[in-house]
Write a structure and sequence with these properties.
8 helices; six-stranded mixed sheet; alpha/beta; Nucleotidyltransferase, domain 5
């Protein structure tokens, strides 16, 4: 790595050691026809992705001492399209679950969605307005385990009904693992999701809100998905949807969670926006 002043988002040696084997194997599987190793180190490419994730800056505003934006986007797009971003994330997630004395894949997941505003340059064809929340933009759906770790991500137009987002999430959960038997959702999801889950061998339970509750009251087990949404928006690139493709928005979630999980595994904290 070239000498430069480190950024707070940079990978430590310990966190890079968790990711490096995956990217080294990825690179070894794509040898250059000329034998050239490439101008930029993979660690610096990931540092640039994490810097943008944490700061929310535009591609053109990446600092000059990081690899150029064209090179960073080249790898970001490749890893988005071939699933390397998810591979990195899932391997880290399995390590956290193992550290917590749990099986690699969960038996219970919690589903929820979050509507976020879309930036001006996001194609209108991929956005819509969430009528219930009055948010024009995109809808981010996630499935998490009881530790709040992401199992699956779906990004749609905000106008897409919760049922459509929920069934898409269940499809991805089923493709990810055959261990999930119980799914918790809130009242925004309807019978369609329950029936769809049953066809996949999952018992979907709609958790009813206690009518006597006033304001926000965390619901047992379901609260972890809200906590994960809160963790994700510590990464400014996820506060608003800036991505032209929904798949790129999904990739941003995986990179943000990979950063969070790697810090958990190495017992380092995630800095907040207000850290000095």
């Amino acid at each position: 790595m070239s000498e430069r002043k480190p950024y707070k988002s940079d990978l430590s040696d310990e966190r890079w050691a968790l990711i490096e084997p995956v990217l080294s194997a990825w690179k070894a599987g794509r040898p250059s026809a000329t034998g050239h190793e490439g101008k930029h180190e993979m660690r610096e490419i990931v540092n640039a992705i994490l810097y943008q994730s944490r700061t929310g800056c535009q591609w053109a505003y990446l600092p000059n001492d990081l690899p150029p934006s064209g090179a960073v986007y080249y790898y970001f797009a490749l890893w988005r399209d071939d699933g390397t971003d998810k591979t990195v994330h899932d391997l880290l997630r399995w390590q956290v679950r193992e550290k917590k004395k749990r099986l690699a894949d969960p038996s219970l997941v919690v589903l929820d969605t979050q509507s976020v505003h879309a930036a001006a340059g996001v194609p209108a064809a991929t956005t819509g307005k969430d009528a219930a929340k009055r948010v024009p933009g995109r809808k981010r759906g996630i499935a998490v385990d009881v530790l709040g770790l992401v199992i699956a991500v779906v990004v749609t137009a905000a106008s897409v009904h919760e049922n459509a987002a929920g069934t898409a999430l269940l499809d991805r959960v089923a493709a990810q693992s055959d261990t999930v038997k119980k799914v918790l959702v809130d009242q925004g999801f309807k019978r369609t999701v329950v029936d769809f889950g049953a066809a996949l061998g999952m018992n979907v339970e709609i958790v009813e809100r206690n009518q006597a509750d006033v304001g926000f009251v965390p619901q047992p087990k379901r609260w972890v998905v809200e906590q994960t949404f809160g963790t994700l928006v510590m990464h400014r690139r996820l506060v608003r949807d800036y991505e032209h493709r929904p798949t790129a928005s999904e990739s941003r979630v995986y990179w943000a969670m990979s950063d969070v999980i790697a810090r958990r595994l190495t017992d380092t904290t995630t800095p907040t926006w207000r850290d000095a």
